[in-house]
Amino acid sequence: xxxxxxxxxxxxxxxxxxxxxxxxxxxxxxxxxxxxxxxxxxxxxxxxxxxxxxxxxxxxxxxxxxxxxxxxxxxxxxxxxxxxxxxxxxxxxxxxxxxxxxxxxxxxxxxxxxxxxxxxxxxxxxxxxxxxxxxxxxxxxxxxxxxxxxxxxxxxxxxxxxxxxxxxxxxxxxxxxxx
Length: 179
Fold this sequence. Notes:
Elements: H1 2-11, E1 30-39, E2 44-53, E3 57-63, E4 69-78, E5 81-89, E6 92-96, H2 99-107, H3 113-119, E7 131-133, E8 136-139, E9 142-147, E10 157-162, E11 165-175
């Protein structure tokens, strides 16, 4: 349960390394794979992830470094707004109106999963207020710092910080989502 708890924290972020095709905006879809590391003052954990974003849904799968699936989060959208979220972990499936509620119930932490489809790409969610400071920006109480733009347009490293929580996402592969 401890690994699942931290893996779900990592659910909020996601990714590490090699873009071959230009990506479409989140409204059109993308896919990313990588590793996420989550650290607080008392805990640290790492998980592998796969994120598939289409206009209608995001599917985030988290697994251990050895490949065992920890959880799968599905977020459904209508006209760009979240309408529901479902979390499968083990033999259990839970649903809620928003993904943050699911993660809060499972891990006890409030994580910014809703912003991740933008933040993974180094962009603020245009629907929400944000403050830019150099290459970083702050949105929804999180400091987002995207770096390592190997192809000039997509980050391969994203770091999120808030209070004593630090999340590092390393992208290993970016691709366009199949329609």
